[in-house]
Every structure is written in C-alpha cells, then in structure tokens.
Amino acid sequence: QVQLVESGGGLVQPGGSLRLSCAASASISAIYSMGWYRQPPGKEREYVAHIARSGSTDYADSVKGRFTISRNNAKNTLDLQMNDLKPEDTAVYYCHAGGANWGQGTQVTVSS
C-alpha cells in the first residue's frame, strides 16, 4: 500500500489557475493508472482525470481542455494543472493510485 499526500489547494478567483501535487511514499512506476477525483460540497465523489503508466491520459468532459494531469515516476509525484477555474470546480480533490490508495484530499475553492 502506498501513502499519498496532496498539496496545492487554496482559494482562487474564477479564471485563475492552481497546480495540485500528490506525493507518494513509494515508487509509482509500476502503478498502471493514477488519477484525480473530486467531491463538491454536498455531492458524491466524481472522476476528474487519470494517467496510465504509458502516459496516456483521460479527462472528464467538465474539465477537458482546462486541466492537465501529469506524473513523474522518478519523483513519485502526480500533478494536476488546473486553468480557467470555475466556481463549479470547487471541491475537495483526491489523488488515487488504484485500489484503496487514496490521499486525504486538498480543498480547492473558486470564488470572487
């Protein structure tokens, strides 16, 4: 099992940018797929994006063209670059490394 710690959340105005990072306690090079999920206030957790070991990526329609997921297998990190943020992006963002490997979450609030 790998421990995951997210960072980079905060308060940002609409149209702004944030970069989330997830640091893993062990090597991620063998993990087939890693991803980001989010839980908006009062809603269920939802899928945001994932990246395979090969580097191929996939995004939820709601973030496509605005968010970019990346992984650094040498540094054991997973990042999410978020641009053109909207109020509806407000949520707790979680890093996932398969199975029961979840981070504790980082709050992102988009508000003027």
Account of the protein in words:
- This protein is mostly beta strands.
- It is built from no helices and 10 strands.
- It has strands at 4-7, 10-12, 18-24, 33-39, 46-52, 57-59, 67-72, 77-82, 91-96, 106-110.
- The strands form 2 sheets. It has a 6-stranded mixed sheet with strand order 2-10-9-4-5-6, with no helix packed on it. Strands 1-3-8-7 form a 4-stranded antiparallel sheet, with no helix packed on it.
- A hairpin with a 6-residue loop joins strand 4 (33-39) and strand 5 (46-52).
- The radius of gyration is 13 Å and the shape is globular.
- The termini are far apart.
Strand content: over 45%
Label the structural class.
Answer: mainly beta
Helicity range: under 10%
Q: What low-confidence regions span 5 or more consecutive residues with pLDDT below 50?
A: none
| Largest sheet features | 6 strands, mixed
Q: Helix and strand succession?
A: EEEEEEEEEE
DSSP strand tally: 10
Shape: globular
| Spatial strand arrangement across the major sheet | 2-10-9-4-5-6
How would you name the oligomeric state of the polypeptide chains in this document? single chain
**Alpha carbon gap, first and last residue:** 39 Å
Tell me, rounded to a whole number, the average pLDDT.
96
What is the radius of gyration? 13 Å
| Number of discrete helical segments | 0
